[in-house]
Specification:
The chain has 402 residues and is α/β, with parallel strands linked by helices. It is 37% helix and 16% strand. The chain has 14 helices and 15 strands. Strands 3-2-1-6-7-8-9 form a seven-stranded parallel sheet, with helices on both faces. A six-stranded parallel sheet has the order 12-11-10-13-14-15, sandwiched between helices. A two-stranded antiparallel ribbon has the order 4-5. Strand 10, helix 7 and strand 11 form a beta-alpha-beta unit. Helix 1 crosses helix 14. The N terminus is likely disordered.
């Protein structure tokens, strides 16, 4: 089937069962690519319940597949409780395959889950490989503790499948920060395909104004999607209640996935603390981080990239179970002097939390730590994609080029 040479297409897959991290990462990459290249169209397949709450640039769109949510014990369930999980997974699998067949991408980028949720992308990978699509696996710089990741991947033969299907593996971090496959038995074929691109730099979108933007000095408290963020928000509020000398203003963003009962409890609690403002969600988080004096967060991948990009003093209180990803990232960043870190049990002590919050605004920003922050991921991805598409005869003109 003949297609115009300038019509290049990238399909992205983001399984999204918990939180916003995968979708926000895919969207950041997609926006950077369409900004750099004319004639490039990107479609993101997402299972995020609120995929439509974000705005997308021209030539970036998304296909919403039925949502599956991850429970705290690590099990999955359909968001639509009247539909069986297996039926939901079948619908997702056929939607993904049908989208790939119709869209006919030049490049297919899979975020984090090599074969998709419960293997739902494998059939599509096999189909696209046979027709010559370039297949890319994108991994966070920290996946999980090696023993947890190995157990998960071994039972499904994931490492061999990565070797079999993928042409390239992008690691969204620098090699001297962390190796996502550390401690695993990695075939040489997989190692050869790994490209550490650097962290994905974030910026404030032009002309988009957050309704919650402020001009005063405030600490931003964010727990990402918020599904498991209520403990951190309680800890911050308890510190304010326990120490009347803590008068630094704080803006707390609960996140769209925080359970309704927890949300209501925290909104009520926040109303009684004069220095705290509580909001539920903002789809322009970059703007709120950019405006903040300092940031308190659990330290998921996107928030960490934003802390570095906007060069903010930060306190990280990582989630430590069921995954250790946030803990490993926070430990490493703290070792390098980029952030302060408290473990959840320290954060739960109002005296420790209050003292840490009082010191935070005067902490040196990450750029003064002496560590290179390696924020070149989006530029590196853009160069790589441009080279591939050029090699396929896709006449892409650079935006701004004559």
């Amino acid at each position: 089937m003949a297609r115009r040479l300038e019509d290049a297409r990238i399909l992205m897959y983001s399984h999204d069962t918990f939180g916003l991290g995968h979708l926000r990462r895919c969207r950041a990459i997609a926006h950077a690519l369409v900004e750099d290249y004319r004639g490039l169209n990107i479609l993101i397949i997402s299972g995020a319940t609120i995929a439509g709450a974000f705005d997308y640039r021209a030539r970036v769109d998304f296909v919403k597949i039925p949502s599956v949510i991850k429970l705290r014990n690590g099990e999955y369930t359909s968001l639509a409780s009247h539909i069986d999980l297996q039926d939901t997974l079948k619908m997702r699998e056929s939607s993904i395959r049908h989208t790939a067949e119709t869209f006919q991408p030049d490049i297919f980028i899979v975020d984090k889950e090599p074969m998709g949720l419960k293997g739902e992308v494998e059939e599509t990978l096999a189909y696209l490989k046979a027709r010559g699509t370039t297949l890319v696996l994108g991994l966070r710089e920290v996946m999980d503790a090696p023993h947890l990741l190995e157990a998960e991947w071994k039972k499904n033969g994931i490492m061999q499948k990565i070797d079999q299907y993928y042409d390239s593996i992008w690691v969204y971090g620098p090699p001297d920060f962390y190796d996502p496959l550390v401690g695993l038995d990695v075939p040489s074929g997989v190692r050869r395909k790994m490209d550490f691109v650097g962290f994905l730099q974030r910026s404030v979108s032009k002309g988009k104004n957050s309704l919650n933007a402020r001009k005063d000095d405030y600490i931003l408290v964010t727990t990402g999607g918020g599904g498991d963020g209520s403990d951190l928000v309680h800890d911050v509020m308890n510190a304010y209640e326990a120490d009347e000398t803590l008068t630094q203003k704080a803006l707390v963003v609960l996140g769209p996935y925080m359970p309704a009962a927890e949300r209501a409890k925290l909104v009520r609690k926040g109303e009684n603390i004069p220095y705290i403002e509580v909001i539920e969600f903002d789809n322009h988080m970059e703007e709120l981080i950019d405006g903040a004096t300092a940031v308190v967060a659990m330290g998921g991948y996107n928030t960490y990239c934003e802390i570095l990009s906007f060069d903010k003093p930060a306190l990280i209180v990582p989630r430590v179970a069921p995954r250790e990803e946030q803990l490993l990232r926070a430990r490493r960043a703290s070792e390098l002097g980029l952030v302060d870190m408290l473990l959840p049990e320290q954060s739960g002590d109002p005296t420790i939390m209050a003292e840490t919050l009082k010191r935070l605004p005067s902490r040196l920003p990450p750029s003064k730590s002496g560590s290179n922050m390696h924020l070149e991921g989006l530029n590196q991805i853009s160069r790589t994609v441009g080279g591939w598409l050029d090699g396929r005869g896709r006449h892409l003109s650079l935006v701004g080029a004559e």
